[in-house]
Amino acid sequence: xxxxxxxxxxTKFNTDQYDALIIMREKIGELADENIYRYYFCEQxxxxxxxxxxxxxxxxxxxxxxxxxxxGRMLTQKVFNKIIxxxxxxxxxxxxxVIANQRFQAExxxxxxxxxxxxx
Length: 120
What we know:
About 30% of the residues lie in helices and about 30% in strands. By secondary structure, the chain is an alpha+beta fold.
């Protein structure tokens, strides 16, 4: 079984629109010393809605069970919207979709009740 690095991406804005997703990245090759990845979009959620947050926490826990560790990243709304449009390559400097912003521990959604309810 292949192991896929995963990111849970979210914006810092509270909204009633989708603002969180889990994306998996699989290395499929190299070209001129650059890695080539295939991306899998698992789901989109509204992070400020508690039931969606429960779903995300469940996905984090299921990932652990399968030795997949999900890291959290905060994105600007513009970058997030580009990524979920499926018209741009994620984590691309050229496409303006770099995923290098502030990190947080996604497992805190399952381990830390204060983190889980933050912003609800």
